[in-house]
Design brief:
123 residues, alpha+beta, Nuclear Transport Factor 2, Chain: A, six-stranded mixed beta sheet, 3 helices, 6 strands
Length: 123
């Protein structure tokens, strides 16, 4: 991935997490391509309406703050390690977000907990 492309990817990621921290579903949804897909651990969401429903649900049920700890380029986007803290048991915890871009939008997002404490330590 080129430096320019990675900068663009980081901008998309920053906008997405800014919207998440503001709990702004519309702004979060705008980061996604219309045909985007999301895998949140084991559940898949495809298309704008399903992603909107997922965003509305997680925004209502989880009151978390997100801080991007590390961003690494991948062949088709970036991997972000994010510290999530809030009203969820086990907080704070680390989450891995794998972003695949479609143009300047998120084409696919895969979300997994960082399960191995030795993989990343909480600073």
């Amino acid at each position: 991935m080129t430096t320019t492309r990675f900068a663009s990817t980081r901008s998309v990621i920053a906008s997405y997490f800014d919207a998440k921290n503001r709990r702004d579903v519309e702004a979060m949804l705008q980061a996604f391509a219309p045909t985007a897909t999301v895998r949140d651990e084991t559940i898949e969401y495809a298309g704008s309406s399903r992603i909107r429903h997922w965003l509305e649900h997680i925004t209502k049920t989880h009151h978390l703050a997100f801080e991007v700890v590390e961003t690494t380029p991948t062949d088709r986007g970036a991997m972000a390690i994010v510290r999530a803290s809030g009203d969820v048991p086990g907080s704070p915890f680390l989450v891995r977000y794998a972003f695949t871009l479609s143009g300047n939008s998120i084409g696919r997002l895969e979300i997994d907990l960082v399960a191995d404490a030795t993989e990343r330590s909480l600073p």
